[in-house]
Prior knowledge:
It is a single chain. By secondary structure, the protein is α+β, with helices and mostly antiparallel strands. It has a domain at about 5-85: DNA Binding (I), subunit A (Orthogonal Bundle), CATH 1.10.30. The chain contains 2 helices and 5 strands; from the N terminus they run αββαβββ. The strands form 2 sheets. Strands 3-4-5 form a 3-stranded antiparallel sheet, with helices on one face. A two-stranded antiparallel sheet has the order 1-2.
Amino acid sequence: MLFVNPERKVKEIDKILRKDKKIVELLKKLVNYKCQFPECNSTIPTEKGVNYVEVAHIKPVFKGGKSILGNLIVFCPNHHKEFDLGIKEILEDNTETISGILNGKNFKIDLHNNYTYKVE
Ligand SMILES: [Zn+2]
């Protein structure tokens, strides 16, 4: 088994986070600090005056997902965890739209700010 020095691991993670920082902040601004999951109205006001949101990778980093537009999506913490850990089937995934079923709920998200919601 390959041994990875924990310090080295932390450095690698830091490197990834620092590289992501600009695009992550830009993306949050683009969606006005609002969760992109359809019909989500989660609000967590922060002392910075903006709503707390997180940026998730559609294709996870450990599967080779990159921090680029089209693979990043802004979620509230609940939707972030549900997206990462829930039962999910992705039906459509391109640079503009992602759609599928998450824990039994259909969703369709326009990655460029405005989203649409469709129940089938
Ligand atoms: Zn949400």
